[in-house]
Every structure is written in C-alpha cells, then in structure tokens.
Request: fold
Amino acid sequence: MGLIFLAPLVVMTLIGLSFPQAGILDYIAPALLATLALFFGFLLTGISFLRERFQGTMERLMASPVSRFDIVVGYLLGFFIFALIQTLIILLFTVYVLDVNYRGDLWQIIVFQVAIIIGAVNLGIFISSFARNEFQMVQFIPLIILPQIFLCGVVWPVKQMPNYLQWLSAVLPLTYGVEGLRDIMLTGKNLIDVGVDLAILLAYAVFISALTMITLRRGVKE
Reply:
C-alpha cells in the first residue's frame, strides 16, 4: 500500500527532472494530474477491494440485511478517503515542490480532481469483480487505463487524431478530466466554465456505480 502512495511522487519527480523548463512542465502537469488520479485511484481501490473479497468480508456483508447500494456506497467512501489523500499529496507536491504554475484557484482544482477520483474508485470496485487475483487486476490496466491515456490528449492532441479515434476519445472519461484540468490550470477558468466536463465525469461515476451494484459478488471464484 505504501508503494502505491510513493509511486506517483516518484513519477512526478522523474518527469520534473526530464522537463526542467517551466513552460513545458506547466503545460503537461494538468494532464498528468488527471492521469495519475485515475490510474492510482483505480489500482489502489481494485487491489484493496479484491482483498476484501479474498478475506470473506463481502460474503459476510451480503449475507447481512445490508443492501448492495449500502455496500457500494460504504466502500466508495472508504476508498475515496485514501484516494483523495493520495491525490492531494500529488497535487501539493506538483505545485510546491516541482513549482508548477497555475492560473485557476487551487480549491477548484481539488474539487475537479475529486470528480476524477470518484470515477476511478468506482471503476476499481467494478473491475475487481472480474479479477480472481491481484495479478489479473493489474492485467486490466492495458485494457482499461492505457487506451484512455493514449486517446485523452496526454500523448498528443485529440484534434490531431483520425476522426474515428476522436469519436472514441469522446466516450472516455479521462478525456474530460484532462480537458477540464487544463482549462482550470492553464487558462484560469472556474468550475462553472468546465461544468460540462464536470457533469460528464460525475455521470460516468454514477453509471459505473450502478454497474457495480449489479455485478457485485460475494467472494472470489477459483
């Protein structure tokens, strides 16, 4: 668990050393913050929830009068706290240690990051229902996370992609996370200005939560 918290800081430090020029680092920082929030929130939640199923906690909960909704919301709140702490550490490290400049308000950046975290936590809980062990959970990363990283505008601008990739990018939540954070940090827009991106991220989180309640399992099938 400790490695999951330290890994983002190591990644940001290496990127900071690779791009010492303030202008370049300022531009790529919003995309990296959104990507790391999704990636490590997904990984932290998925592995932790999988262990809960291994230990039989889910089986005991589902045998109790507690509803699936209560279980999903309870785990969401629990994992959300750890994911939020992790994201705050990454954000504060990026701003105050790497000295990345930003134009928007810091609290609005945090609020927007919260929307990304909620989606990441829900996604981690949902995907972990299909994994039998931690190795399988990691194997979902190339299927779930990497396509979003390549198509959300982190590697190259979405507008420079072929039309069919732009359409695919439009249905991926990380695209709106990167776009919204860039608008806030690079141009100084507020949460109202990025309201569409924020609403899509929250709608995505609600949709994944609904799928999680449907696919929730008692334990891990061998």
